[in-house]
Write a structure and sequence with these properties.
Blueprint (H helix, E strand, L loop, with lengths): L1 H9 L6 H24 L15 H16 L6 H24 L8 H22 L5
Amino acid sequence: MDLKIAIQEESNCGPTPHSVKKINHLIDQSVKYFQGFIDSLKSKGSLPKTYDETVVRPALVAHFYIARLLSKKICNDRREKIDNLKKVMDLYQYTIDYCSAHPDTPTGFEEEYRLAKEYVQLLPVKMDKIMMGECQ
């Protein structure tokens, strides 16, 4: 997906319908498998309040990566883009809330935690710009 996006950005012409479809398909497939992993952690239909120490980092990384992937999804409709960014913000907020509630968050997740906090602060501004038509 990142390679397809880079190729699209390097070309001087805008994204073709085929490249948009391919990028979005790759994003959807990646999200599907990350979500499948997250769903496998559910007990009685909901995620645990505290993950087992063997899966806490992978679970948080899966949430982080889904947010990252969804933020790259190419949407033509403003409302769809805003809805997508709200999902992204919810996912980043989930990782922030989990880490705040569990000070023993696994080593190696500090960078993602810091980035999630930054994104949660920046996304409302981006959503406002999209609503005003200033940003794609």
